[in-house]
Write a structure and sequence with these properties.
Elements lengths: L5 E3 L4 E5 L2 E5 L6 E3 L6 E3 L2 E8 L2 E9 L7 E9 L2 E10 L2 E10 L2 E7 L6 E8 L2 E7 L5 E8 L5 E9 L7 E10 L9
Antiparallel strand pairs: 1-6, 2-3, 3-16, 4-5, 6-15, 7-12, 7-16, 8-9, 8-15, 9-10, 10-11, 12-13, 13-14
Amino acid sequence: MFDAMAWLNEPAKWSVQDGRLVVITDEETDFWQTTFYDFQHDNGHFMYTTATGDFTAEVTFSGAWEALYDQAGLMLRVSEHDWVKAGVEFTDGATHLSTVVTRGFSDWSPAPFSSASALTVRLTRHGSSVRVQHKDNDGAWQIMRLAYLEMPETVQVGVMCCSPTRCGLRVEFSDFSIGPAIDRSLHE
């Protein structure tokens, strides 16, 4: 599916190999709007397609998380000022599950997480609600965030990665898919 997707802020180094997207981040890339740091960055790497109505997107990814704020995962994007990104972010010397919801201003919800070499994340749109989940080490889906985002019928959705304090983060994405929205039940 990666071959049919488009880039926002295409990185200098990327390739699709055996159905896997491999990205090497450019220098000081990020998606963030104002909160706490008083800056606006919209230069992270985002490979996307469009989706209309309710859907579930899923991806598995791994990276060499080493520098502060190294990050990767899924992104749902309406505009520069309205989006959700969710996945892994490196902070305080460790990997964290991370979700940022931006409605003019970004917020950040990190939670320490030790995982296997790869993480699977899914993002589901239910109307104006966005549900973010990750697959735990036992293979069960766990909730990361349930958020509100005002959206048009059609949005951009895909994979993102950033390295705000360096260049050269290597991220490998596989098994990206978009399909019908999962059931609205939050508790199994």
